[in-house]
Amino acid sequence: MSVAQVKRIAISDSPWPWLLPLIALLIVFTVYPFFYNVWLSVHEFMPRTRSLKFVGVDNWVQLWNDARFWGSLGVTFAYFAVALVIELALGMAIALLLDAELPGFGALRAVLSMTLVIPPAIAGMMFLLLQDPQFGVVTYLLNWLGLLDKSTPILATSSTALAGVLLAEIWQWTPFMVLIFLAGLRSLPAEPFEAAMIDGASSFQMFRRLTLPMMSRVIAVAVLLRGIDLFRVFDYVFTMTSGGPGTTTYTLSYYAWQQTFSFLKWGYGATLSLTSLIIVMVLAEVFIRLAKVRW
Amino acid sequence: MNQSAFARTTRTIAGWAVVGLFFFPIYFWTSVAFRNAKDIFNWPPIFFDFQPTVRNFEQVFGISLGFDFGNQEAVTPGGGNFYMAPRLWDSIVVASLSTVLAIAVATLASYALSRMAFRGRHQFVSWVLSTRMMPPVAVAIPMFFIFKQFNLLDTYTGVILVHALMNLPLAVLLLKSFFDDIPAEIDESALLDGASRWTIFRRIVLPMAKGGIAATAVLCFIFSWTEFLFVLTLTQTGLKTVPVVSSTFVTSIGTAWGNMAALGAAAIVPAFIVILLVQRHLVRGLTMGSLKQ
After folding, report:
1. Are residues A113 and A212 in the same domain?
2. Is residue A117 part of a domain?
3. Which of A45, A100, A293, B82 is the most buried (most CB within 10 A)?
4. Do A33 and A155 sit in the same domain of this protein?
């Protein structure tokens, strides 16, 4: 190799020109907004003077003492936990069911991917209609089964509103789990299962001792990606309940958005959204380390 | 496996029933798009037996289809409260251009991340991944004020930039996984033959990764197509995409379910068709390149 050749390879091998557009965009659209948010969180909009005033840590003190913030955090975690557990369990069950070459199962897998391309805001509307107290299908079925009194509007009753929102969430995202788990199941080697079968293991034993451990990485990735999105749920709440009735479906994202854009509490909204960001980042980082997820 | 015929039949039926349950809301929503108000507002709800109509579509798209299953009321083309064709156009523009931008930036970056060893590469990938974790509300709030300063509120440019940014982590990680599938030896031997990185990228790697790039583009398109919070926050009257405009069908005199469903169905069908085209790469895409099918 000539000197010139070596030089050319060395120069053209610098990754930075390739990465520059990406870095520029990420700095302008994530790093800058992040610091802007931090700056906003120590200011507050003064409606009388129509300007921002420095308020120090007032917003953070207010956050600590704000019962509605703690309430929204509780709702967010409840939503997160319930949805994640149900989507995982149901997703695995359906994946196990569909993991077979039976008539039409290929088409069924394709049909399941339909829910994933529906805008969540529209899915929210779909379930708003399905749960309408006067003519909704879900209302009708629950009445018919005797599980719900006709006079109880699902989305406007404190005890059932969150479940109503979760119904849309679980309907739309269980197929996400199914498709991922199906791909995982199909990539499992056959030999351990054949050996276990010869040893007379039951299907439950095989699932516990073979399928689950071999699927752990797949499950970890699914939990991470779904978990991140669950924590920041906004669309369903906005379209289905607007946080109500009372504060029973106020999630952190919705609360932050509402403080900023409905109540013009720009600084406090920023504080709330930063809190949500910090919680997601910390939880995700801990999870990535514990579950050893790598890209 | 030697399953009995009975077990196979049971399992087939169970599979169809479960998926049918998931399909039902889509069926019902689509059927509402073809209903008159009286068939929507009925108790008990009507499942199948309704008088079909295309009025909702005619009103939403401002067109006259010239037939209406025997329903006689004519629709004035090109107008009305529920005329939403321009919003569909907004959605198409935003989703297409933000996809082009995200793919352009991401292919370059992914190539470097896939092929070049440099210090901090792993940290860089983690940084890109971490931007995927930012709650949209924590970006939308500061972005509203920043956009206000730079007059980007309510503009195509602003929404396109934000949607491209939102899709960058996915595009970068997914494309990197597709580039990783192409043997690095190809690049190395071409380098030794005197080809520049740029030539290799353009002439060898891009053509070989065509399928992967298409799949990535489809997913970026769909995520922009379905996005709600950024458009809701960063636009007012200039443009609105389909998911956001759907929520405005709730009016003081009631919700225009038929029109909303017509718009929704029109938005879902093309997205479903494109997702079918990349079915093979779907799981890899949903897991940001982490799981290969």
Report:
1. yes
2. yes
3. B82
4. no
Integer Cα distance of B256 and B185 in angstroms:
59
Question: Is the domain of A109 the same as that of A165?
Answer: yes
| Contact with chain A for residue B272, Cβ under 8 A | yes
Q: Which structural domain, as residue segments, surrounds residue A21?
A: 3-41
Are residues A280 and B134, on separate chains, in Cβ contact within 8 Å?
Answer: yes
Residue A68 lies in a domain: yes
Question: 0.80 exceeded by the pTM?
Answer: yes
Using alpha carbons, select from B273, B249, B251 the residue that is nearest to residue B261. Answer: B249
Same domain (yes/no): A92, A13: no
Taking CB atoms and an 8 Å limit, are A130 and B225 in contact across chains? no
Nearest residue of chain B to residue A110 (CA atoms): B276
Number of folded domains in chain A? 2
pLDDT in tens, A197-240: 899 888 899 999 999 999 999 999 999 999 999 999 999 999 99
CATH 1.10.3720.10 fits B85-286, yes or no: yes
Q: What is the pLDDT of residues B92-148, one digit of tens each?
A: 999 999 999 999 999 999 999 999 888 889 999 999 999 999 999 999 999 999 999
Q: What share of chain B is helix, strand, coil (3-state, %, to 5)?
A: 70, 0, 30
Rounded Cα distance between B238 and B71, Å, is 35
The verdict on A33 and A130 lying in the same domain is: no
Rounded to whole angstroms, the Cα distance separating A102 from B266 reads 32
Neighbouring C-alpha atoms within 13 Å toward the C-beta of B228: 26
Same domain, A24 and A135: no
Q: What is the ipTM of this complex?
A: 0.91
- Nearest by Cα to B168 from A58, A23, A121: A23
